[in-house]
User: Fold these one by one.
Assistant:
Number 1:
Amino acid sequence: MSRLGQPRSLDDTTAWRGAYAPYDLVKELCTAIGVITLLAVLLTVLFSSPDDRPSTIAQWSRQMPVDFATTVTAELDGTSGTAKYGPPYNQNGPGQHIAFIHLQKWLGVSHPINTANDFVIDPLKSIPANPAVHSAIAVYLAAPANNQAAWTAAYAKALEKASAGADGTVTVAAGNYGPVATITNSLLALAQSGGLDGDLLTSRQFYQTDYTKPLLFMSDGGLLAERAQAQHLLGTQWGMMNETGSYPGQVWLWLYTLPYQIEPFKSSTNADALVMLVMGILSLAFICIPFLPGIRSLPRRIPLYRLIWREHYRSDHL
Amino acid sequence: MAVQALPPEKLLPDSQPTYVASWIYVFGVASIASLVVIVGSGVILSLKGPAWWHATGIGHFINGIHLWAVELFFFVMVVHLWGKYWMAAWRGGRTRVWITGAVTFLVAIPTALTGYVSQQNFDAQWISTQAKDGLNSLGVGAFFNVTNFGQMYSYHVLLLPAAVVGLVIAHVLLVRRHGVVPPFVLDTSRVSPVEQTLAPPDADVRYSGGASS
């Protein structure tokens, strides 16, 4: 390092009146495109790209029938994650907020979901010529709310010690479950047949692209989380920046996933809103670096510029 | 007016100041090159439809190029941004150059996210069910639903790439208009004691400062 002095403190940038070197912008761009293409092709040939098959409700109900039945019971009695979520799906939860700012609540319910009706009752109603199921639904819907709650609570407790048969059925100890056992087992059978995957997509249109209902239903269960854990995709595993398999994921989200690993965000019920707020402020600061005292001066104080422009300073020095 | 602001000799120069001589300058053009490869492979994927790459070898290959070009894009763009930070590249009326570059990086993040949730595989299922919570917490989920494949696909193949490409064009035009930021002008009267200690014994202070000197 030579003794070149320090940069002047003010913006000393003036129009360049020094020497110029020949430059071909088009050639440079074409070369860069060629190199990047070559690199992308090489990486593809060497490592390909991940494509883990999606989970289906049929797969979930066959592989984890007890978990499926437990989730169905929670959807029916309104205790599942989606049932208690709040906006934009329902009004059953307050949503997250930052101090007095309740954006989630203020923007309201845009994708209404009643988990009991949408995930359980309506798909079962679509089964033709099944009087036992239709009767069970009628009994459940006609019962007082406290009866419904007592049946689902008893059945949920029984499911904690349930066992799954080789044929995919769920066996629980005898108890007073009202029509809940019939409803849950019927939906389990429908799901195992593959019918529920389609039912949750059904709307007034023939063509479908909105997977909100099946995805929310599946995320209330354990299959997606189990697969995610095995692939290091959980939030506690810095999963936001990971990818299935050993592929690099969205590494650029490291700063976004960092607060989730530390307090006070980690245990906050408003963690998502708080992290989004922090990232919003940091993003704004990033854009406004030229205006931020201290941050904008660091490049002058830490002489990395000497490394970047070492040829320039060396030639001027000589 | 436009030609006055950006005459051909500035838009497509055949020479550059001699200080533009460092590997760090490669990362700017590498970012653009990566974007070109992303758009090119993305166009092929969209021409064949969102399910094509799952069922064919060539589709999977093109998807691989798309994915790795995205990884390269973010890598070279981050290096480019760090390089420009340490050059304080907003100097000399170049604030808008910095702002368009920073906003491009920030817009590229949801562009990538919408791609991830449009993959129609387990990755898309998991990412969409997790990302919804962050977006919903600020009310964004009311109009931007990551579990709606159709909406995300539209954002990914048209709206957000158009925004990124538009920002990159604006960024490049601003760079061409203002030129590449020159090095700091050094003031030899302010040599720090640390530098004097670190300087080799035969070093001589002859640099007089001034970019044109």
Note: Residues 19 and 69 of chain B are 29 Å apart (CA to CA).
Number 2:
Amino acid sequence: MLGPSGSGKSTLLAALAGVLGGEEEGEERGALLVDGAPPTQGRGRIGLVLQDPDAQQVLAKVGDDVAFGLENLGVPPAEIWPRVRGALDAVGLEAPLGRGSAELSGGQKQRLALAGVLAMRPGLLLLDEPTANLDPGGVAEVRAAVERVVRDSGATLIVVEHRVAVWRDLVTRAIVLGADGRLLADGDTERVLDERARELADAGVWLPGRQPLAPRGERPGGAELLAADGLAVGRPGGPVVARRLELAVSSGEALVIAGPNGVGKSTAALTLGGLLPPKAGAVRASHELARGAASAPIRWSSRELLTRIGSVFQNPEHQLLAATVRAELAVGPRALGLPGVEVAARVDELLARLGLDKLADANPFTLSGGQKRRLSVATALATRPRVLLLDEPTFGQDANTWDELVQLLRELLDEGDAVVAVSHDDELAAALGAREWRLAPAQEALT
Amino acid sequence: MTTLLPAFRAGPLARVNAVTKLGCALLIALTLLATVDWVSAAVAAVLEAAALAPTRLPWQRVLPRLAPLGVAAVLAWFTTTLYGASSGRVWWQWGVIEISDGSVSLAVATALRIVAIGVPAVVLFLTIDPTELADGLAQLVRLPARFVIGALAALRLVGLFMDDWRALTLARRARGVADTGRARRYAGLVFALLVLAIRRGTKLATAMEARGFGAPGPRSWARPATVGWADAAAVAIGVAIAALAVLMAVVTGSWHWVVG
């Protein structure tokens, strides 16, 4: 199922799963039947996997979590555990049953969620952008698990996805919804992709063979802005997760922080951004960046950070402060004490640039995942920091907003600012002409 | 955070059902709360030590967690000695401070009571797994499954909330609003955490509903909660501690009802 964000794909999936809520929560017209009955009566026949890997584990241990659905269906205890093991085998998750579900990686958590619905032996499997928040390794894991499950169980699969390439070989039929929620096309996958290519491209669907922005050549940077010397990073009160980091970021330079899950990329970004104190070593801002402030960013005031280093977090919801999108963008410029006219000018410009102008008066929490992420990038841009640190900025973006975001970052680079991004997105690195800074697991870094 | 450290999963206490442990701790606590004498508390504390000594708990890990109890007991002893209800002979007086026979014995009784009620409670929470407790409460005590399982699932979110809180704090610094207005910022953080908590809760509820939670029809249990000889022994020990504490207090004439 394809379509622009806001076309109602997720709502339709929720309706198919029978979890849309009752009459008091909205209007319903027409009839939706699964196996000839309303979906709410088909519990266990319909399995739903959602986008957010953290939102779907119910119990603390892997085995208990998979067993949860079976208990709810009243499956006899003697049958439960063989079915749990079978489901975990089917998704290729080899974790012991007693393993903590919180310790799993994103891809493993999504496979756990899949095992949880699979154990119920559903005839209909609904996946709502199951790979949107995963790194490429996780995407491949989940895709392989789904393929095996569908082949072995013979269940019907409906998947909502922006990135067509992931599922193209597996699905046999494509349904396209328009921005107004109406049906645009329905038929054989290849034929729909071919005939509706233009509409799909306009809707931001990642079509196979899409030409991304021309790569920007890696360019030598200008004056040094930010450097790390023998830096060790970790959460306060927690262990050191990465050590002996050496780095220099120059004006006009793009850098991508890469490495496997759990290697400390986000922690390193927060430390470089003057938000976490180094565990050892130092983060140094050059004179050009510090402009009279101390050399260590962690010693800057919150206001001093604004025009020097901007940080965009992995979860945009953590950074939202205001009741409307417009007010959200004005928070930083106001904290700088800029005159009202200037604040309004900056806000309007960013609203237009990131396609958020129609949402100016909306509550930021009501935006879609991709819109929230763009908003959090825009809030950092509003105070024009010389160094911009971003944690997975392209998660959840469709092809159009991806282009817009990358274009904006390229302009920053051309103006002589520096962009540092934690990202698994190879296209992003190429489009920014970014240098890769790869973090290795702690044991390897020691040698 | 809802799984136990392996060290706490070994030993005889691991064979006792979580509900039994909860029951024993409650029995002792309620008994000791009925009276305010020092004899019953001292007897209970000594017997608890004797009962817990052979359980092979990893004491290096347990003792630091018991330390706050010691601090609370000493503080209670000190303040009750100085300010407790006065009776009998007065030893020393200065302003509102009055040390008397009554305040001294009340202080000892209070401090011992904190230890005697606190130790089993702390050991209990170190050695039960929330999932096991929920299974037990639903299957053995017959509390409504919907309520117990809902609470258990919510407990898993607590760890995520702690991460949220840290991220929210850092995010405010990054947004330029962390320099002034500490009190107001704190209120804002609490509100933001509440919003995130509701959003996480809603998503979790959807995921649970999609997996048949709350469906009509009987629920089965993947982990049957059972009670056995270990539980019978634990109950016997718990009842013995409570009964001996009461008996000794009554025999020595120190029993003193809190109410009445």
Note: Residues 224-446 of chain A form a domain with the Rossmann fold fold (CATH 3.40.50.300).
